[in-house]
Specification:
The complex is a heterodimer of chains A (about 80) and B (about 280).
Chain A lengths: L1 H15 L9 E4 L10 E3 L4 E4 L11 H14 L1
Chain B lengths: L1 H8 L8 H15 L3 H15 L2 H13 L3 H14 L6 H11 L62 H39 L11 H46 L7 E4 L2 E4 L3 E4 L1
Antiparallel strand pairs in B: 1-2, 2-3
Helix pairs in contact in B: 2-3, 3-4, 4-5, 5-6, 7-8
Classes of the chains: A alpha+beta (about 80), B mainly alpha (about 280).
Chain lengths: ~80, ~280
């Protein structure tokens, strides 16, 4: 019975698992080179936007974050 | 009557001595009277005197009637060793197969369709002939060997047949495929985890995501591997299910039909062959 339970567990795990990564609207930073993965487009905010997504991304790009930090430092 | 039977049944055999006849008659009377142990004793004495293998058949019948199946089987085996060319060898082998189906004689496969013998209350009609009936060599074997044969134990029937071999093999294949499916599923899950980690990474201090050009190779590898592992997992799972169904089917067939065809397996060419025309090629 223990073997059957394990076999059933393995079968269920194998049957239910599938490759389905998350599809965030905003993913990578694309500042400087404008390179994004397939299905994403680099937009003016320096972020890769998913092609079928709407709206803007609120996350900062790396450069923006660095610039913001630098700006903050310089303002001081 | 006794002499007539002797003359008809074994014209070429030697004539039994008066003492052999007396012991045979004594055993027969006891057997017909229902005292199987007394018959066994008389016939054992006759065997001790004459070393005639025919006595062994009667002794076996008496033991069988007395309910001592194991002793009867031993005695029949002793008879087959003493009289390997006996004309009633097939009959004795059938009795052996019925008495000890797990340990049939090594020289002949038991017929599974044989009808059980009848040794209930009737005298030993198939071998009513007295000693010397089977024309066979009579090696000098001590009487004690009847109960304790000195030869090696007969080869045991493995119990395997085409159905349970296929069922167990299919079950093994199903388990292996299930393990492969689980492995591929784990790899797909790992690839998915990698992709999610890259997509959702945010720098703790700035909140900025990863720059795609820095992780492009890793991302592309994970997105290529994930679907492939996922597909392989599903294929292995489906194949495992098919193998499990085959295994279950053959287990059922084994339960219903498996007692009939005992098989032997031997290497054959590039695979393994079993009686009944079954072959597995590798």
């Amino acid at each position: 019975m223990a073997f059957l339970r394990w076999a059933l567990l393995l079968a269920v795990a194998a049957a239910t698992s599938c490759f389905s990564p998350k599809q965030p609207a905003c993913a990578f930073s694309c500042v400087d080179d404008g390179v994004c993965p397939v299905g994403f487009t680099c937009q003016s905010d320096g972020i890769c936007h998913r092609d079928d997504s709407q709206g803007t991304c609120t996350i900062p790009s790396q450069i923006d974050a660095g610039d913001a930090g630098d700006a903050g430092d310089s303002s001081d | 009557m006794f002499a007539t039977v002797v003359a008809l049944a074994a014209p070429a055999a030697r004539a039994p001595s008066a003492e052999e006849q007396r012991l045979f008659d004594e055993g027969l009377r006891a057997f017909q009277a229902g005292d199987a142990r007394a018959a066994e004793k008389a016939w054992k004495t006759g065997y001790a005197i004459a070393r005639d293998p025919a006595f062994l058949v009667h002794i076996g019948e008496a033991q069988e009637k007395a309910g001592a199946a194991a002793e009867a089987a031993d005695t029949y085996r002793h008879y087959l060793r003493d009289a390997p060319d006996a004309s009633d060898r097939a009959d004795i082998e059938q009795r052996l197969a019925r008495l000890a189906p797990a340990a049939p004689p090594a020289t002949a496969a038991p017929s599974p369709a044989e009808a059980p013998g009848e040794f209930g209350a009737s005298p030993p009609t198939p071998s009513l002939a007295p000693p010397s009936a089977p024309a066979a060599p009579r090696p000098a074997v001590p009487m004690g060997d009847v109960e304790h044969p000195s030869s090696p134990a007969p080869q045991e029937d493995s119990g395997w047949n085409r159905y349970n071999i296929t069922a167990v093999s299919s079950a093994g294949v199903a388990v292996i495929l299930l393990g492969a499916a689980a492995m591929f599923a784990a790899q797909a899950a790992s690839a998915e985890s990698d992709v999610n980690r890259l997509l959702l990474y945010r720098d703790q201090s700035t909140g900025a995501p990863l720059k795609y050009s820095d992780v492009a190779a890793q991302y592309q590898q994970a997105t290529a591997d994930g679907p492939r592992h996922d597909r392989n997992a599903k294929i292995a799972l489906a194949a495992s299910a098919v193998a499990a169904a085959v295994s279950a089917t053959f287990f059922v067939l084994d339960a219903k039909l498996g007692a009939t065809p005992a098989v032997a397996i031997a290497p054959a060419g590039h695979g393994v062959a079993a009686t009944g025309g079954w072959q597995w090629r590798f």
